[in-house]
Specification:
171 residues; mainly beta; 3-stranded parallel β-sheet
């Protein structure tokens, strides 16, 4: 089953500003909250460990979400969101274009991190610093491409794919 076809039409609701997911939930499914254009805050339970493809895709006002217990964040989950700060302290894998075009200033990836997908942080124009605590991590192509303000990156990677920092002229 193609994940792009699971939910063919977004909710597209423009009045919901906050979502609270109850304790016990372990996964947010594909496109569950995509295109909630007024959504500003999401409260996740401590039990949540996985967020499926595009779950918050296009939630252009989403600024606040607690990700500290999430281990797996699939592709395009936060694409186009207004996130400025994130806590990825438990993350193991981040999918393709997960945080593309967000407004992140700083990213710290913990020791548990193993992989960053293609374009994971693509075009985060406010991103200035990235700190990798992981001893070895696989970084996909264009992972930080077009992050024009990126000036500092402390990294020890097992694999860095081509163009990972494409057009990061201040680095």
């Amino acid at each position: 089953e193609d994940p792009y076809l699971i939910k063919q039409m977004y909710i597209g609701e423009d009045t919901i500003t906050k979502v609270v997911i109850p304790e016990g939930v372990t996964t947010i499914e594909a496109y569950a909250f995509a295109k909630l254009t007024a959504l500003e805050e999401v409260v996740l339970p401590s039990t949540l460990t996985r967020i499926a493809i595009g779950a918050f895709y296009g939630c252009e006002k989403l600024k606040t979400i607690n990700l500290e217990n999430v281990k797996f964040i699939n592709e395009r989950v936060f694409s186009g969101c207004a996130l400025e700060e994130i806590d990825l302290s438990s993350v193991v894998a981040i999918g393709n274009y997960t945080f593309e075009k967000c407004k992140l200033n700083y990213v710290e990836l913990p020791k548990s991190s193993q992989s960053l997908g293609i374009g994971a942080f693509y075009a985060n124009k406010n991103l200035t610093s990235v700190d990798f605590k992981a001893s070895k991590i696989k970084i996909g192509s264009y992972a930080f491409a077009e992050c024009s303000q990126l000036i500092d990156m402390d990294i020890n990677a097992a694999v860095i794919a081509s163009y990972a920092v494409y057009h990061c002229s201040n680095l």
